[in-house]
């Protein structure tokens, strides 16, 4: 019995010592990273924003978030040791269900830390829309080649849009090259702005786009575009006369496929100025931000 009591006493002393040691262990020093953003919009679908700091060449997540306003400030508590070594900040768009320890290819803002602050820019992360040396110009035609049996025009050209000058010439000239992780998507906006309908996603001015959900079965030009002939959304008649045309920039991720992403730099209106398209929103100035280590 004496030996048992001795062992119990010894075990109790060890447990108290261990707890005491844990209680006195130094906590990890933390600092605040403040992210201030302007021009971003809430994300719909299965995607979210995620911040990253680059430490010794490797990304460390600073946390995920969404926003309810175009201007947003978020504070994150990050290990001081990591922030002391941080060289850059990156804001990416990620699937909401994702355990990848690295950012996706879809990055929207980035900046280098100088004196504990980074100015965040969209330019290198998405694309350059202020290239004065190679200015963009664009146009489209109305046509429905995919129901022209035998190549004979059936006369219903008001129900199709193609981003071309003619069947062999692209209509999008000097289209800015997008960074990996982003794609263009064309839209015609029906029902007084209530129903945008996709013409498909693409990355270059030439070549077929990603889909043709409403077109017929006859050959189409090898360029982005769509005929609105069948399987249309409810309430859409397919006639594009006088309607807004938009080219958005979309994350190359699963998300809300029914509406354009908030980056919509290129637009025009059917019947106005020979169906010209222009860069009407300078995304390089649209979105900006700062990352501040406090």
Spell the H/E element sequence.
Answer: HEEEEHEEEEEEEEEEEEEEEHE
Total number of helical segments? 3
Which spans of ≥5 residues are poorly predicted at pLDDT below 50?
1-21
Compute the CA-based radius of gyration: 27 Å
Report the average pLDDT across residues: 89
Beta-strand proportion: 35-45%
Q: Which bin fits the share of residues in helices?
A: 10-25%
Q: Count all strands and give the number.
A: 20
Strand order of the largest sheet: 3-2-5-6-7-20-1-4
Could you give a short account of the major beta sheet? 8 strands, antiparallel
Structural class: mainly beta
Q: Count up the domains.
A: 2
Give the termini separation. Answer: 60 Å
Please tell me what the overall shape is.
elongated
Chain-wise SSE layout:
Layout (H helix, E strand, L loop, with lengths): L1 H23 L5 E9 L8 E9 L2 E8 L5 E9 H6 E10 L11 E8 L2 E4 L16 E3 L1 E2 L17 E3 L1 E3 L2 E2 L1 E2 L8 E9 L4 E8 L22 E3 L16 E8 L11 E7 L6 E4 L3 H4 L1 E6 L1
Antiparallel strand pairs: 1-4, 1-20, 2-3, 2-5, 5-6, 6-7, 7-20, 8-13, 8-19, 9-10, 10-16, 11-12, 14-15, 14-17, 17-18, 18-19
What does this structure look like?
This protein has 294 residues and is mainly beta. It has two domains: 30-126 and 286-293, Immunoglobulin-like (Sandwich), CATH 2.60.40; 137-283, no CATH class. 11% of the residues lie in helices and 40% in strands. It is built from three helices and 20 strands. The protein has an eight-stranded antiparallel sheet with strand order 3-2-5-6-7-20-1-4. A hairpin with a 2-residue loop joins strand 11 (164-166) and strand 12 (169-170).
């Amino acid at each position: 019995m004496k030996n048992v009591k001795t062992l119990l006493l010894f075990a109790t002393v060890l447990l108290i010592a261990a707890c005491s040691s844990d209680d006195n262990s130094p906590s990890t020093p933390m600092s605040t990273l403040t992210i201030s953003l302007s021009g971003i919009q809430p994300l719909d679908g299965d995607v979210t924003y995620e911040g990253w700091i680059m430490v010794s060449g490797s990304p460390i997540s600073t946390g995920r978030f969404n926003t309810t306003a175009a201007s947003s400030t978020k504070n994150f508590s990050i290990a001081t040791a990591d922030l002391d070594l941080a060289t850059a900040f990156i804001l990416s768009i990620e699937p909401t269900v994702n355990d990848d320890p690295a950012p996706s290819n879809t990055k929207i803002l980035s900046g280098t830390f100088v004196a504990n602050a980074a100015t965040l820019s969209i330019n290198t992360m998405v694309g350059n829309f202020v290239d004065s040396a190679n200015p963009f110009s664009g146009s489209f035609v109305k046509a429905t080649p995919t129901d022209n049996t035998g190549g004979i025009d059936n006369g219903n050209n008001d129900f199709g849009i193609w981003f071309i000058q003619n069947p062999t010439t692209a209509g999008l000239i000097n289209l800015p090259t997008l960074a990996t992780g982003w794609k263009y998507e064309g839209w015609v906006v029906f029902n007084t702005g209530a129903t945008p309908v996709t013409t498909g996603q693409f990355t270059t001015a030439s070549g077929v786009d990603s889909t043709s959900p409403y077109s017929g079965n006859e050959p189409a030009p090898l360029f982005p575009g769509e005929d609105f002939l069948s399987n249309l959304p409810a309430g859409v008649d397919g006639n594009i006369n006088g309607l807004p045309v938009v080219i958005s920039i979309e994350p190359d991720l699963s998300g809300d496929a029914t509406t354009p992403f908030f980056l919509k730099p290129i637009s025009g209106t059917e019947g106005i100025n020979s169906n010209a398209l222009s860069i009407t929103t300078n995304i390089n100035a649209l979105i900006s931000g700062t990352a501040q280590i406090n």
